[in-house]
Amino acid sequence: MKSAVVLLPGLNRDRDMIAALTQISGRPPLTVWQTDTDIPDVDLIVIPGGFSYGDYLRCGAIAARMPVMRAVAEKAAAGVMVMGVCNGFQILLEAGLLPGALMRNASLKFVCRKVKLEIANADTVFTRRYALGQIIDCPVAHHDGNYFADAETLARLEGEGRIVFRYAEGTNPNGSINDIAGIVGGAGNVLGMMPHPENLIETAHGGTDGRALFEAALEVAA
Amino acid sequence: MIKARVTVTLRNGVLDPQGKAIEGALTTLGFEGVGSVRQGKVFDIELDSADRSKAEADLKAMCEKLLANTVIENYAVELR
Fold first, then answer.
1. Closest CA to A137 of A162, A120, A113, A157
2. Which of A167, B9, B11, B80 could, after both became Cys, cross-link B3 (CB 3.0–4.6 A)?
């Protein structure tokens, strides 16, 4: 399976994401720059974390209006897997590829620690190597991860099983409504999540709970 | 030239932890009777145009497309 990583000024988790994709798929991902209007044929497009455009205006707001995001939207509509982590999640929301918004953490503090995630839907291309209800470790590092959606949207997300990761065991680090840590949109092929699975894929990271997500999406044997 | 001010505020019912923190700080400073504080943004925009109705339509489009996130924010456009 081929992957591509979207690069924007101010992202800082791109190297970690490229390392994870390279290690797990056995080949380095392609990279596409913010001004690119065409994305080569790949199976998975990843928008990594960081602080694109310095979080000016709102996190992800400027990045979401860059030409490359129109290409990402076209690929997503064509069924290509798209995954946004942290700032990448914020960008997917601002681009309208996923519903809702991410606001300042309720504590007003930047949180950088390991949390527990519950797999709330194990029937997606990203989570099928986990079991429903399984609790995994995953690091978070963000200032604006407080997920919000209006009551109608929230009911739809819950009803359609679009919430795939929830903060578990009282580890909600940001005040997210319904403990939401990650959701899928489109035909289930667009994933946005605040935690960083790319930072928990080898024992030197202190755990490998993030591997199964990439192995599922990239169709690599565990 | 048309000068405009766009004000973006959080929708009712959306939690504003920054506003809460400011409210707490005002109380700490001794200002009594601060019921609540909601934080927002102000954009002063100059347009090279004399057509006020077009300017207003353009500014609303700017709010919808970029200046406000209508999931959580309201906006108001005021021509000077």
1. A113
2. B80
- Segment A174-195, tens digit of pLDDT: 999 999 999 999 899 999 999 9
Judged by CB atoms closer than 8 Å, whether chains meet at A101 and B71 is answered as: yes
Q: Is A202 a catalytic residue?
A: no
- Contacting residues of B for A57, CB less than 8 Å apart: 66-67
B76 strand-pairing partners: B7
Classify A175 in phi/psi space as left (phi over 0), alpha (psi -120 to 50) or beta: left
Cα B40 to the center of its chain, rounded Å: 5
**Touching check for B72 and chain A: CB below 8 Å?**
yes
Residue-wise pLDDT for A43-64, tens only, equals 999 999 999 999 999 999 999 9
Q: What is the complex's ipTM, to 2 decimals?
A: 0.85
CATH code of the domain covering residue B42: 3.30.1280.10
Task: Please tell me whether residue A150 adopts helix, strand or coil conformation.
Answer: coil
Under an 8 A CB cutoff, do B14 and A108 touch?
Answer: no
CA–CA separation, A29 and A19 (whole Å): 9
Q: What's the total number of domains in chain B?
A: 1
Q: Which two tokens stand for residue A95?
A: 């681009």
- Return residues 21-60 of B near A (CB < 8 Å): 21
User: In the structure encoding, which two tokens stand for residue A45, read together?
Assistant: 């497009």
Cβ atoms of A34 and A9 within 8 Å: the answer is yes
Model confidence at B48: pLDDT above 90: yes
Range of the domain at B40: 2-79
pTM over 0.90: yes
Strands A101-103 and A81-85: unpaired
What is the pairing mode between strands A190-193 and A81-85? Answer: parallel
A196 is catalytic: yes
Contact A99, A80 (CB under 8 A): no
Q: Give me the catalytic one of A86, A118, A138, A205.
A: A86
